[in-house]
Amino acid sequence: MPAFPRCLAAVLLPAIAILLTACGEGPWNSPYPAGAASGRTLFASFSERPKHLDPARAYSSDEFRIIGQVYEPPLQYHYLQRPYALEPLTAVVLPTVRYLDRDLKVLPDDAPEAAIAYSEYAIRLKPGIRFQPHPAFVRDSEGAYRYHALTDEQLASIARLDDFGELATRELTADDYAHQVKRLAHPQLHSPIAELMKTYIVGFRELADVLKRDLDAKGPGTVLDLRDYALEGVQVVDAHHYRVRLHGKYPQFRFWLAMPFFAPMPWEAERFYSQPGLVAKNVTLDWYPVGTGAYQLIENNPNRRIVLGRNPYFHDEFYPTEGEPGDRESGLLVNAGNRLPFIDRVVLALEKETIPYWNKFLQGYYDSSGLASDNFDQAVQFSAQGNAELTREMQAQGISLETAVAASSYYMGFNLLDPVIGGLDERHCKLRQALSIALDYEEFITIFMNGRGIPAQGMVPPGIFGHLDGPRGINPYVYDWVGNAPRRKSIEAARQRLAEAGYPRGVDAVTGKPLVLYLDITARGPDDKSLLNWYRKQFDKLGIQLVLRATDYNQFQQKMANGNAQIFQWGWNADYPDPENFFFLLYGPNRKAGLGGENAANYQSERFDRLFERMRNMDDGPARLEVIQQLQEIVRHDAPWIFGYHPKSFALHHAWFRNLKPNLMANNELKYQLIEPAQRVARQREWNRPRVWPLLVGLILFFAALVPAWHGYRRRQRASAL
């Protein structure tokens, strides 16, 4: 072919190919294979790979996001009810609890706490629940496990779990739950809750000691068979019934029974995964979980994507038939009573950058999205009443906004051991009350959090038993109830408290010296400058000089442990939805200085401690609620913290993604959610229509410019021929 026609073909052929692509099924820019969007598949993303998928070790939200769909503890949180309520999952009913004295005699339910030596939780399982198909369960014709002793020849052909040719299943039993509790005590697993469970589960500490002794005696590479070890506090009664015995009374244990730590683990899986040849190939429990949940992990490629697929052996479970007021009107009960799950497949793609992730969501290629500061203003605006609303552009695309207040508290704490800011006398309490008024957390939330939070009124976040709305729920030392909402007291009120504390206009009335306070922080980068200036401004309103003492996190931790910080910032995320999980942060015997507890303020009040000890093991009800309000009154007056804010999560989702209700305690929410793929496909085509006309115009202009060149080329060809 002559050079000029060859060049022409190089231009025309790609253009023709592009035009032919326009006649295909999906949009040109779809990141998924043809037809993927038409299935009942959820498309989402992740930015950091989960470190642990072993339920004995995992303890972060990105890890629970995966294993919560695979593993099933005996209990779960009701998807729709608020406040959060437990319900059976693999258990038949909620566990029955009985109390025993030191001689193991049964006590009445209303026995005084001092008489209770043990609590015993009886858990009965639903029969017929089966594990997902897995090679660990495969047996040969003689009943031996086919893949529990792999040869080098077999290992040579195995790189991933799906390289195994056969899969099998078996029924879930009580032994599987007992086995997992033993695993929590295993020294090699370093379970994050092991130390806590040593305090409560009878025999747990002793089992951990025995396992460590045997590991040390047998040397590196030892694999212990936990079936050879007994755990006194866990008794298997029969195939579908087991008991857990605890020291004393600990009603919060019921919440742990809804966490993956207490999900079942078949011994066959642990034996299978302990083979050195598989460990060397990273075929382990930390990479390939095995459970009874609605989904199984079918692809784990953290450099590209993670895929969950429906568990073909998932037991009967049905969508809730009731919720809280407003759920029916919101369409959350349309699928009431229908069998779960609704989604067949979950594809999580790696997205490290915010902008491409956000653009793919707007194009319809992700079904939901969080909100980063980079795109917050594009998506959300605030009404005159301060309510978050979607922008017109988002509404035009049918996008919905879901918000939820997290069961978390962020606060500014005072070290009660400090001679200037500490002390429980009225003078020091009024000083801390004045500072509590002056720090305008409404302004903080607006400036630094895009409005994603609510000011805290005390220890208990919304959604937790003991939280009250309305006039009874405000902190009266910081707020007034005006109209139908709390209003922060004026700065004049703060100055009056400061004067009553002996510091009129920020000057010590005795010494005549200005009051100087110190805030220990870990923020040191240029991005923190505006925040630190804001803190100085808040204290300056009272005439108080704030000195910022910046350290790295390790030094900060050491100062807190030694009780050397004066003022500090901290936060707490609830492990479980109980007020005890927040009030214990101010319990005297739990103070940080000297004892290493979580009471970072080193607050110690005999009255508070006495009421806390009474409240923590009470059952929810009017009597407990009354004690909680007494505790709130004490800490609001004493002000060991400036109660900062409870963060609010913002999430967006497309109209085809349904049954979404934020549940900040549940880990297994995917089975309740639903995708309408036909609507998704239609919107993706609408939002990603290729603009072909610029290409056509370009081709026309190209050919218009080409005609003179073509004629010149032909003239030269004829002249050469002559």
Short description:
With 722 residues, the protein is an alpha+beta fold.
- What structural class do you assign from the helix and strand content? alpha+beta
Secondary structure: helix percent: 25-40%
Task: Please mark out the parts with pLDDT under 50 across 5 or more consecutive residues, or reply none.
Answer: none
Q: What gyration radius follows from the Cα positions, in whole Å?
A: 31 Å
Largest sheet: 8 strands, mixed
Overall geometric form: globular
Specify the oligomeric state: single chain
Strand content: 15-25%
User: What is the residue-averaged pLDDT?
Assistant: 90
- Count of distinct strands: 25
* Number of discrete helical segments: 22
The N- to C-terminal Cα distance equals 21 Å
Task: Characterize the structure shown.
- By secondary structure, the chain is α+β, with helices and mostly antiparallel strands.
- Helices cover 32% and strands 17% of the residues.
- The protein is built from 22 helices and 25 strands.
- A hairpin with a 3-residue loop joins β9 and β10.
- The longest helix is centred in the C-terminal third of the chain and has 29 residues, at 693-721.
- The model has no long low-confidence stretch (mean pLDDT 90).
